[in-house]
Amino acid sequence: MKKANSTGNRVLSxxxxxxxxxxxxxxxAVAINAFKSNNAVSTQAxxxxxxxxxxxxxxxxxxxxxxxxxxxLALGYSLFITLVSVALILLFTSMSAWYIARVNxxxxxxxxxxxxxxxxxxxxxxxxxxxxxxxxLKLNTPFTIPVVYLxxxxxxxxxxxxxxxxxxxxxxxxxAAIDGCGPVRTFFSVVLPxxxxxxxxxxxxxxxxxxxxxxxxYLVLDRTKYMTVPILIQYLKGxxxxxxxxxxxxxxxxxxVPVIVFYLLCQKHIIKGVAAGAVKG
Length: 281
Hints:
CATH class of the largest domain: Mainly Alpha
Strand content: under 5%
Largest sheet: none
Shape: globular
CATH topology of the largest domain: MetI-like fold
């Protein structure tokens, strides 16, 4: 029996190793081609750079200086949108989840189920209505689009936060109320510090989503004035629609490496937060 289990574990391990390699191949291809000439990317996409095809960091320089839109400005907009959107999501959804978990009413249950329903609605069903609404409400700038991200990111965040809050002992909050804490002080002084594992997990997942998102900013933002890094990459085209593949790969690598590093540094917190929020639900 033990031998059969050992064989099964080896087969599963081999399967997941192969699956990991398959998932990593696109990232490796981008990393390899970011340092190759444009012609080499077109003709030798999976070959390693050699003395003839290696161009160093010229693709990165070309990508950052291509066109009339400054790369640093697009980078600044991406950072601002990501940080503000994630901050809004963490603050408002944690408060909402605490209310849902502690107030047993029809409204709270309905609100919770609506948040769960928003997780399964395809974005394509609402994107045209969203674009029209965002234009009418003047949400088409980097300074207002975090409100849109708050709406789309609330479902998953409330689901994770509510599961964790339900696992927290109510006696701690009751003790804070006896000591004279009101609801606001109880949340920020007692509940919020206890939400730290789930807060980190939700933050990492939302940062990865907002930073890499292309479709929502493309539809909502006024592209004549504002661009994020994923949108700017699309415009790395020369005359007659010619695409500089080397510069494109370099910019894609610059876009994904920070998120990958951030995820690797925080992955243990993601596991802890998901496990903590899965105790009760």
